[in-house]
Amino acid sequence: MKKKDGMVLREVCGEKVLVGEGLGAVDFGRLISLNDTAAYLWEQLEEDSDIDSLTLALCKEYDVEQEVARHDVEAILEEWIKTGVVDR
């Protein structure tokens, strides 16, 4: 998984949102609001990130069981793929 070029995390009016910059703004044209956990996962997302590495990062940062963390990681990644902010 990797972040789509031009997608950045910003704080707007106290909320964390994903926005497109440059050509990303032209292609995307909307905001996605993220809770703290989703924003943390976005910050951890690198080109070589996979479900296992993101699950481990989530478990280290938050007091959460691995099974629950994996489910949450899978759900947010699927949502991000559908909205076009990450590539597989």
Automatic annotation (TrEMBL):
<dbReference type="InterPro" id="IPR041881">
    <property type="entry name" value="PqqD_sf"/>
</dbReference>
<dbReference type="Pfam" id="PF05402">
    <property type="entry name" value="PqqD"/>
</dbReference>
<dbReference type="InterPro" id="IPR008792">
    <property type="entry name" value="PQQD"/>
</dbReference>
<protein>
    <submittedName>
        <fullName>PqqD family protein</fullName>
    </submittedName>
</protein>
